[in-house]
Amino acid sequence: MKKTNKIPALWIDTDPGIDDGFCLIAAYEMDQFEVVGISSVNGNVDVQQATKNIFYILEQLDWEIPVYEGEAHPLSEEVLERGVHGNTGLGYLDPDQEGIIADPEEISAIDGIYQTAKELGQMDILAIGPLTNIAMALEKYPDLPEYIGEVIIMGGELGKGNVTAFAEFNFYIDPVAVNRVLEAFDCRVLGLNITETMGFTSKDRQWFDDILGKKGEVLRSFLDYVIEYREIDGEILPVHDLYALYAYAYQTAVIYDEKKVKIIEKGEKRGAVETNEKGYTTLFGIEGNFEHFHRFMKEVFLGK
Ligand code: RIB
Ligand code: CA
Question: Do residues 24 and 38 touch, judged by C-beta distance below 8 A?
Fold first, then answer.
């Protein structure tokens, strides 16, 4: 694929989720790429709620982007586990109360990913929920990798999990999908080992006091929920999915380690990242710069 000076096309696959919400709002503000499609996936909430949450966020931004409804069930054996983002997935916010009507495209996320990537010739994917849609698009369209530049993944860990002692949530929900994606695509993985160390401090809540309109209301509500839910004051409030978007846009801002890995698919360690000589060669983020990310967040949300 010859290098063009066109900005890259980006597809976002998401299970909103508050940190997904911060990521979508930032993606709307950023100009290093063009978002060409957004797909919902079962994860923090069921896929119908995830679709509604995407429409809720897009409506607050007055952002017109094709939205595709994704898979309701993982490739892996289903586990009854939801994220920590409240009943609606958006903390205190409820799209139903605001009369949001989800109106996804006719075709599925699987078909939308493939058709859009093939039409464009090359597309990157930001995957900030379980990897079910990407894995099932690959299963249906084995030539999909020909049209995908890179897949940036928020998921996994290099030690401690957040849904079990061993596994991070996105990898835990669908470990079978993760293995298929790592095997087929060029991936950069941003795991808890780095994303847990990057985010807001509760002092940053004041940033959002003066943002007018619905966007300000949503940002304030998101951060209030994270601070109140986590009942932590003064520590870092991670925004895992936003960090993955930042890593996509600022490739040199993160130091990566090339690892051969496989994801454990069953048992007590389901979803855990296991180094394995026969594993899939993957770039894992291992080090970033907190100040640079913090400055990026201030700039992207406050425009300064
Ligand atoms: O473990 C963090 C990940 O799980 C984030 O993507 C969050 O939104 C949840 O999906
Ligand atoms: Ca997510």
Answer: yes
Task: Give the ligand 1 atom nearest the CA of 17.
Answer: 8
Check residue 235 and report its DSSP letter: S
Phi-psi region of 204 (alpha: psi -120 to 50; beta: other; left: phi over 0): alpha
Q: How far is the CA of 152 from the centre of ligand 2 (A)?
A: 13
Q: How many angstroms does the Cα of residue 20 sit away from the middle of ligand 2?
A: 5
- Residue 257's CB: how many other CB atoms inside 10 A? 11
Which residue's CA is minimally distant from atom 10 of ligand 1?
129
pLDDT band at 60 (very low <50, low <70, confident <90, very high): very high
Q: Is 1's pLDDT higher than 50?
A: no
Question: What distance in Å separates the CA atoms of residue 107 and residue 110, rounded to the nearest whole number?
Answer: 8
Residue type present at position 72: A
Note whether 82 and 163 are within 8 A (CB).
Answer: no
* pLDDT in the model for residue 8: 97
Query: What pLDDT shows up at residue 15?
Result: 98
